[in-house]
Amino acid sequence: MLNCQQITQLVTDYVEGRLSFGKRLAFQMHIGMCRHCRRYLRQMRVATKALGSLPREPIPADVKQELLERFKNWKA
Amino acid sequence: MKGTASSVASAEDTELVKSLRAGDPKAFSTLVDRHHGTFVRVAMAFVGDRSAAEEVAQDTWMAVLTGLGGFEGRSSLKTWMFRILTNRAKTRGVRDARSSPSALDEERDEGLPPADRFNERGMWASPPRPFGEDTPEKLVLRHESLSCIEAELARLPAVQRAVLTLRDIEGLDAAEVCNILEIGETNQRVLLHRARSKVRRALEEELGTD
């Protein structure tokens, strides 16, 4: 049986599908019974998702222009 | 290195490379728009300074053009480009004395809740505080969440930051990231775990409510 502290250590292995069958089962059993660890798992997933939502930094117009110029010369 | 479907050039890559070699400016423009921002983000992990990161990103585009003729599709185009980028960023980082490989191994903070948040049986004594994770869509729109994440990213050790950027911001898979950063699969997962745990902790500290 895993405890809560172990869940916080194994959460990425779980999300990445890298736990053994037995550990995965133990992890899921714990999560099924423990609302705090369910929250922890959800917070890890939300943090991951939030990273994917960070605004894309645009390329400065002058930099892009210069790169395109270089590309023109490159192909020539 | 493990071979996966995403670690070799796709049909789309092949088409794109063909267009680039034919000198199609639209193809190059699309490629630059798609990746320049992440180039700068990943470079920041190693050089720490915005203008140096911009320079590294620009140099990388030049190196991509120079090397394109020899691109054989043994990895995806993205992997190949990010490898060029990280090699340049690492070199620049060492030159600027921002990072050295040994400094990366010395980190002690795993980003996990401290031991005193658990009782003697390892069960939560001070459980995780909610920070809006029930409405992730709203959370990611909040200015405080984004600035909190950006600040935490800036604090991460170089390779951790690069792993997190490539995996969770750019959306690459584990095998691609291992290939780009030349690290093992287990190491990649440890670095990812620490980095994600720290971002979670930062969000809890910043936005958590009792």
Describe this structure in words.
The complex is a heterodimer of chains A (76) and B (210). Chain A has 76 residues and is mainly α. Chain A has a single domain (4-75), classed as Arc Repressor Mutant, subunit A (Orthogonal Bundle), CATH 1.10.10. Helix content of chain A is 76%, strand content 0%. Chain A has four helices and no strands. In chain A, helix 1 crosses helix 2 and helix 1 (4-15) runs parallel beside helix 3 (35-52). The longest helix of chain A has 18 residues, at 35-52. The N and C termini of chain A lie far apart (67 Å). With 210 residues, chain B is mostly helical. Chain B has two domains: 5-95, Orthogonal Bundle (Rna Polymerase Sigma Factor, Chain: A), CATH 1.10.1740.10; 110-207, Winged helix-like DNA-binding domain superfamily/Winged helix DNA-binding domain (Arc Repressor Mutant, subunit A). Chain B contains ten helices and no strands. Chain B has helices at residues 11-21, 25-47, 50-68, 77-95, 101-105, 136-141, 143-155, 158-169, 174-181, 185-207. Chain B is elongated. The chains are: A mainly alpha (76), B mainly alpha (210). Chains A and B meet through helix 1, helix 3 and helix 4 of A and helix 2, helix 3, helix 6, helix 7 and helix 8 of B.
